[in-house]
Design a protein that fits this description.
mainly alpha, globular
Length: 512
């Protein structure tokens, strides 16, 4: 149950205050989602300016994803307990200040540190945006409010790489972080003026700080070892120590979760074979997605010699196809069951990645880039909606929030590991990064691996996914951006994206 703290009746969407609440949550979530997608476009310019090679670029992406994944459930839990508006505003302030640190960073090490702080801010504000909408509006207006949020978030995600690329090319990559300051100021003003404070009286009195810390340490240790192993040596003491401590911390995390009265990750939810299978497919598919979209902008700029604007614009077909087709694919999956689209979708996406693996020096956009981008978007459109519906249908209704949040973190963890592992598996090193021809050879191998992973995800879905005995009532799916999975039916993508429904991650953490 959710209560409104001293603000009277639930909001009406058509009221002035209701509209401003939607605007505040759209702008807040856009800060995190745009930053996650635009930074990939900026990587070549960041590398040229700050140096550090491929490893530094990997950490520029993974430092953000690591802290975001580690603290996302905690952020939702704190919002339910201490007030969703309060934690949302704290997250926005934190994110904006960390963005200033990113913009001013004189070295790659300081940029990586600021990106890690950004991820913490993102973990505080991301679950709050949807939780505010779900808790603040009257029941009959919630779906429309979340639909408006999702629609405008999809538009922002579609134009973000293009606008970000233009800023990078025309001024500096630092500007993509500077713009978060006025945007954050607007969100804070709107939130304090218009957003009602809400909380959950049934939220746990104490957040699972021990579980959160162990999960963060485990992920950090393993990702550090995977990222630094190729350059420092797999037997280097710091690499071995990091790997061992990471494994121990993750093992302790699962022990703590099994014994806790209020775990951040309730392990009982994995008793559903369908839920576990859907998350396994999520891990494979989003690992391929995260690894490919990390390397693709670098290939387009360093090898094909695209400008940042052109590299950002080249991603538009993926989002455009998803904007058009995702709702239709969601309805189709409701009629046919999830197994077939979850099988065919990743295979089609893999075919798109296979085409993109051939993009090299001298490639043209229409003949070489556009076909792969379009097919890739078609495959993702067929995959995301049924995958989300399957995750929610496999969990009891009282655990729908937990299910969506777990699926979200599985996807982010997959992307985190893929950015660390895929370049190594493809033979891309800091030395090859400095030589475009060698990088291009590694890029082709990397995308072949990613295409194979997507095909394997389709096969895994065919072998493990079954039609639910009782079909859930799933509203039409909204489209999602490119870096996280949809969070449920109807409209709540966390693609920062990302990544669909009136189900908040904050409720997920609280009910856990």
């Amino acid at each position: 149950m959710t209560e409104t703290a001293g603000n009277g009746s639930p909001l009406v969407l058509k009221s002035a205050r209701g509209r401003w609440v939607v605007v505040a949550t759209i702008l807040g979530s856009a800060m995190a989602s745009l930053d996650a997608t635009v930074v990939n476009i900026a990587l070549p310019r960041i590398g040229a300016d700050l140096g550090g090679g491929l490893t530094s670029l990997q950490w520029t992406v993974n430092a953000y994803t690591l802290t975001l994944a580690a603290f996302l459930l905690l952020g939702g839990s704190l919002g339910d307990r201490l007030g969703r508006r309060r934690i949302f505003v704290v997250g926005v302030v934190w994110f904006a200040l960390a963005s200033v640190g990113c913009a001013l960073a004189p070295t790659s090490a300081l940029l990586i540190g600021a990106r890690a702080l950004q991820g913490v801010g993102g973990a505080l504000l991301t679950p709050g945006s949807l939780a505010i909408l779900e808790a603040s509006f009257r029941k009959e207006d919630r779906a429309a409010a979340i639909g408006a949020w999702s629609g405008f978030a999809g538009i922002a995600t579609a134009i973000g790489p293009f606008v970000g690329g233009w800023l990078i090319q025309s001024v500096s990559w630092r500007l993509i972080f500077v713009i978060n300051v006025p945007l954050g100021a607007a969100v804070i003003w709107l939130s304090l003026r218009h957003v009602p404070e809400t909380s959950d009286p049934n939220a746990p009195t104490r957040p699972d700080l021990l579980g959160t810390a162990l999960g963060a340490l485990g992920l950090a240790g393993i990702v550090y070892a995977l990222t630094e192993g190729p350059s420092k040596g797999w037997t280097a003491p710091i690499v071995l120590t990091s790997a061992i401590l990471g494994v121990i911390a993750l093992a302790a995390f699962f022990v703590v979760q099994a014994r806790s009265d209020h775990p951040i990750l309730p392990l009982s939810i994995f008793k559903s074979a369908q839920f576990s299978a859907a998350n396994a497919v999520t891990f494979v598919v989003y690992a391929a997605l995260g690894g490919a979209l990390f390397l693709l902008p670098i290939q387009l700029q360093r090898v094909v010699h695209y400008s940042p604007t052109a590299a950002g614009a080249s991603l538009l077909p993926i989002t455009a196809v998803m904007l058009v087709l995702s709702p239709r694919m969601g309805r189709l999956a409701t009629r046919t069951g999830p197994r077939l689209p979850m099988t065919i979708g990743p295979i089609i996406a893999g075919a798109g990645i296979l085409l993109l693996s051939q993009v090299g020096s001298g490639a043209t956009y229409v003949a070489d880039v556009l076909p792969g981008m379009t097919i890739f978007g078609l495959g993702l459109s067929a995959t995301v909606a049924p995958l989300t519906a399957t995750v929610l249908a496999a969990a009891p209704s009282e655990n729908a929030g937990v299910a969506s949040a777990v699926n979200n973190d599985v996807a982010r963890t997959a992307q985190l590991i893929a950015v660390a592992v895929l370049p190594v598996a493809a033979g891309i090193t800091s030395a090859s990064y400095a030589h475009p021809a060698e990088f291009s050879t590694g890029f082709e191998r990397a995308l072949l691996i990613a295409a194979g992973a997507l095909a394997a995800g389709g096969v895994l879905a065919w072998l493990t996914i079954r039609r639910p005995l009782v079909e859930p009532e799933v509203p039409p799916m909204s489209s999602c951006p490119l870096d996280a999975p949809a969070r449920g039916p109807a409209a709540a993508c966390d693609w920062d994206p990302a990544t669909a429904a009136p189900v908040s991650a904050s409720r997920a953490a609280a009910s856990g």
